[in-house]
Amino acid sequence: MKKLSIEEIESSVKTVSEPMKTKSDKTTVNFKKKRKKRKIKRIIILSILVIVLGIIGYFGWISYQAMKNIFAVESAPGLLGLLDKKPLKGESSGRVNILVLGVGDEGHDGATLSDTIMVMSYDVATKNVAMISIPRDLYVKIGDNGYSKINAAHAYGEQNKYPGGGPQLASETISTVLDLPIHYYVRADFTGFSKLIDAVGGVDINVEKDLYDPLYPDGTLSITQGVHHMDGALALKYARSRETTSDFDRAKRQQQVLVALKEKLLTTSTLTNPKKIAEIIQITGDHIKTDFKTNEIQRLVEIGKTIDSSKIVNRVLDNSANGLLIAGSYPQAGYTLIPKLGLGEYTAIRAMAKNIFKDQSIANEAASLAVYNGTTTAGLATKASESLKALDYNIQYVGSAQTLTYPTTVIYDYTNGAKPKTIAALEKYFNVKSEKKTGEYSDNDIEVIIGNDYKVK
What we know:
Elements: H1 6-17, H2 23-70, E1 95-103, E2 114-123, E3 128-133, E4 139-141, E5 147-149, H3 152-159, H4 165-178, E6 184-189, H5 190-199, E7 203-207, E8 211-213, E9 221-223, E10 226-230, H6 232-240, H7 247-265, H8 268-271, H9 274-287, E11 288-290, H10 294-306, E12 313-316, E13 325-327, E14 337-339, H11 347-354, H12 361-365, E15 368-373, H13 380-390, E16 394-400, E17 410-413, H14 420-430, E18 435-436, E19 446-450
Parallel strand pairs: 1-6, 3-12, 15-16, 15-19, 17-18
Antiparallel strand pairs: 1-2, 2-3, 4-5, 6-11, 7-10, 8-9, 13-14, 17-19
């Protein structure tokens, strides 16, 4: 028999002493490995969840903080209020009116004066929108503060701690001028306006004519005619420049930029981009104030998506030949504007505001009108013509008739029926039938002779 060496004996003992691994032992090992992997996976998932919740928490926090600044309430309503959609004030009566105020940045001279004053109206039946710009130099009575330029209404409200502040006093003043209820206001400063445009990636503006302003506060402004993609800084300059044009031209440009901004805000690329939304919320919280409630915002966005920007009606109160204003003569107030009918006489302005959504066929027919006073009441033809201008009638001449004994108003049609929409509208307005002057000549398409039956509207 062969003798085993010490090494061989030790090896044999070691082999015998090691337990034999069964199938059950292998299963236990695999289970431990899988459990370890699941634990690592859970840690990764929990980590991601914590990060996501952190982002949501941050987004919610900045939203909450922004809402406290944006909404004119004592405490910000919960974010869930956005899910509880609510109709807007004025929808039940067919028209929603929103006052838009642009003010200077905090700390600037005259920061509380409203540089931009605009009323945006939504017609529920037609889903159309109208924008009425009011010049800041319009001389009006502001509450108990006497007469002043209308841009001081907001300033008085802020300085005198008026209930509801500057926006409320401005709303009441403008409501009196237009004879329209102001349901909401939105107030923004220049920096917020500029930052919002940058946040949506800029806006595309069709510049109708070259704009050159060497007197602009931040340096010469020069923009050529044509389509330009504008960042916030350029769009703000475009909307504010007036030294080489006019306050009325500036108002038109402001309306143009606001429409372009609305288009970009409501694009899918903006509404589905959390980063952009967070940035917009932060900007609005710092620079914008409104009395919209959170549960009205969702409805406002819905309405905004249905608006056809190409059909927006734009009006600027101005002192052009067919405008409703003239320069005032109040040296203590500097340059001022007043209604053509006289200080505080808002009849024509109110007619324009009330009828702004009417059929545009009168303007399209562009019939020329002469308005004569056929009574002994001085100024009656002038008052009638101003009201007609507000309704888009093309008034070419105002004067006195050869005789002043007309008991009722008369409408003479020299077009042989070529301006049917205008004639029909005038017949309804004066509640009389027109008379065709076939074969006869007049310098104008239609002549209206005001009679004693006319009541100033």
